[in-house]
Specification:
- It contains twelve helices and five strands.
- It is mainly alpha-helical.
- The longest helix is centred in the first third of the chain and has 20 residues.
Length: 327
């Protein structure tokens, strides 16, 4: 872990350390790296699933930590090969994303706004920008450009023994355009923040957060607090199966359904490439398939006139001979 830590984001390194101390060390710590076998790993993963009841996703994460550690050991010539590459890990079934409907999103935003206007703004921005929970929590007023109508997303808030603000990976950093409605509610949010600060005889700190429980907006909302708050909102409107991440899915699905180019959708979502966007949300663009069918049918309509017996197209000249032949 000490070898790899400098190469990892702080929150990633801490997450790895938790998995190592909680699961890997108790089960495999007594086995030498030279003696560790594929069978040992298979039994370990099986125990995590049956004895500890861990999800397939969590087991795959633990496997990833082991695989990376053994890969590093292989590159250092400490062991001849990475046995984790041969271990059996659970497969993750690919499930289609099922975002909430427009009516459901509107109900959730209306309920949130009635209880807490700032939280209503948070949810509306989640729907219009497709930003992740941590990215919206990390949003500062310095990242909002009202003059150009854009929003810069380059940080996120993680919660691991306390709130940690970290830079996003290069592909996830992006500047997106804000619609007029989003600009309006952000201006209202700024006025609210300034009013709260004034009522508490203070002022906003120089690099204030957009969403904060502090009068000077010096500390962001906790992602876990946001999730709990959203849980109360969805329960109030009877939509317990809707999750906060579904607002991001809603944003992507709406863009795909309206024919927004997939590269633009990927850019707004902060995906590393358009392939991720297509595999996750491609089924929300059925109209494109219909358009392709009509286009190809129109282009190839001349083949309907092909005479199989003569192997010629119908003549269009006065001589009665076709100008097109089959070679």
């Amino acid at each position: 872990m000490a070898e790899a830590s400098p190469l990892l984001y702080s929150t990633t390194a801490r997450g790895y350390q938790v998995m190592i101390s909680r699961h890997i060390t108790p089960a495999l710590g007594s086995i030498s790296i030279w003696d560790l076998s594929v069978t040992d790993l298979d039994r370990f993963y099986y125990a995590l699933a049956t004895r500890d009841g861990l999800s397939d996703s969590t087991i795959r994460q633990i496997h990833s930590v082991i695989h990376q550690a053994l890969d590093l050991a292989t590159r250092r010539d400490w062991i001849p090969r990475n046995r984790a590459a041969l271990a059996t890990i659970p497969k993750l079934p690919r499930t289609r994303v099922s975002p909430p409907t427009l009516e459901q999103v509107q109900r959730l935003i209306k309920e949130a706004t009635s209880k807490d206007p700032s939280f209503g703004t948070f949810l509306e921005l989640a729907a219009t920008t497709g930003a992740r929970r941590g990215e919206l929590c990390a949003l500062r007023w310095s990242q909002v450009d009202f003059e150009s109508g854009t929003l810069t997303i380059d940080t996120t808030i993680a919660e691991l023994g306390g709130l940690i603000e970290k830079d996003r990976s290069p592909h996830a950093c992006r500047r997106i355009t804000l619609d007029s409605r989003s600009q309006h509610i952000l201006r209202e949010q700024l006025e609210t923040c300034q009013s709260v600060a004034s009522l508490n005889s203070t002022q906003l700190v120089p690099d204030a957060f957009v969403f904060s429980l502090q009068p000077d907006c010096s500390r962001p909302w906790s992602p876990d607090w946001v999730t709990r708050h959203f849980g109360a909102v969805r329960t109030a409107v009877g939509l317990k199966k809707v999750h906060l991440r579904d607002f991001r899915h809603f944003s992507a699905a709406q863009m795909m359904a309206k024919g927004v180019p997939v590269t633009i959708v990927a850019g707004r979502l902060g995906h590393a490439n358009a392939f991720t966007t297509l595999t996750t949300y491609g089924h929300f663009a059925p109209a494109s398939d219909h358009d392709a069918a009509r286009f190809l049918g129109s282009e190839l309509s001349a083949l309907k006139q092909w005479n199989v017996a003569t192997r010629r197209f119908p003549s269009n000249n006065s001589s009665g001979h076709s100008d097109r032949r089959w070679w």
